Amino acid sequence: xxxxxxxxxxxxxxxxxxxxxxxxxxxxxxxxxxxxxxxxxxxxxxxxxxxxxxxxxxxxxxxxxxxxxxxxxxxxxxxxxxxxxxxxxxxxxxxxxxxxxxxxxxxxxxxxxxxxxxxxxxxxxxxxxxxxxxxxxxxxxxxxxxxxxxxxxxxxxxxxxxxxxxxxxxxxxxxxxxxxxxxxxxxxxxxxxxxxxxxxxxxxxxxxxxxxxxxxxxxxxxxxxxxxxxxxxxxxxxxxxxxxxxxxxxxxxxxxxxxxxxxxxxxxx
Length: 269
What we know:
The protein is α/β, with parallel strands linked by helices and about 270 residues long. It has two domains: about 1-120 and about 225-265, D-Maltodextrin-Binding Protein, domain 2, CATH 3.40.190; about 125-215, D-Maltodextrin-Binding Protein, domain 2, CATH 3.40.190. It is about 45% helix and about 20% strand. It has helices at about 1-20, 30-35, 60-75, 85-95, 110, 130-135, 155-165, 175-185, 195-205, 230-245, 250-260, and strands at about 40-45, 50-55, 60, 75-80, 100, 115-125, 125-130, 150-155, 170-175, 190-195, 210-215, 220-225. The strands form four sheets. A five-stranded mixed beta sheet has the order 9-8-10-7-11, sandwiched between helices. The radius of gyration is 19 Å and the shape is globular.
């Protein structure tokens, strides 16, 4: 950890020196972070294993740990702003938060509005269901039936995927995954469409529910961190930071902990 901190502090110092030399660049976000001593990152706080509430009332998860490392290296306080997924990018564009880390897929449409760094992990669309027939689906056509009721997160790429490839189904949109899982437990819907890690972790959290998910994701999607488009120095600094975590093996260790191990489940059950 000391090696990580030393390396990241060096990268940040270089970024700040560059910032002092090139005042013509827009750097509102980085200036605000340094001035206020606070890094504001937007998350839903309800997307395991990226972020979720523990039994003790604190947020934990893969992206929570990355955010903490970033704030620690910048020597500022981390402030996580929780909000519905659909509100995250508007909040970033309005300057209410400094970045978004919420299992967000990097897409061309989003990249036209905000900058992205990463990806720091790869995901893909899957379904969570109690139906043996649906769990054995090999492609979207097997799910795209008029009698099928689906639920997914409002404003997510899962919503776009359903509307683009599963248009014959009946779709319900919700603000968070707790609502979606509750609907699935009550048999109000046939399946939840979400990123593959969300489906896999929900199975682990509810072993009594007999949930099943696809053995292979329906899509492949890069997950990254959304940043303001008008602060090249902040973007450069965070990208260098993530590159350092990758080189040091920290991201690999975090992926093992949050996506494969499952030992953290005792903190949320």
